[in-house]
Amino acid sequence: MKSRRPYRRHSTQFKLQLCQDIRNGIIGRRDAQRTYGVSANLIQFWLTQFDHGELE
User: Fold this and answer.
1) CA 37, CA 56: separation in Å to the nearest integer?
2) Residues with Cβ < 8 Å from 13, sequence gap 6 or more?
3) How buried is residue 46: exposed, middle or buried, by Cβ count under 10 Å (0-12/13-18/19+)?
4) Smaller CB count within 10 Å for the chain: N or C?
5) DSSP 8-state symbol, 54
6) Residue-wise pLDDT tens digits, 4-49
7) How many CA atoms lie within 13 A of 45 on its CB side?
8) Model pTM score
9) Conformational region of residue 53, where left means phi above 0, alpha means psi within -120 to 50, and beta covers everything else
């Protein structure tokens, strides 16, 4: 059985920059997933928070 990786914490600045880049079309969601190793569900969660102004 494969062991899980330890939880990673991402800074608010990283989340904001990633969401801004995705919303401005600089990077796509799939590219962000591959580049930063972040799940699609987590990116969607951050984007929802970003759109509602809760990510600050």
Assistant:
1) 22
2) none
3) buried
4) N
5) -
6) 777 889 999 999 999 999 999 999 999 999 999 999 999 999 999 9
7) 5
8) 0.84
9) left
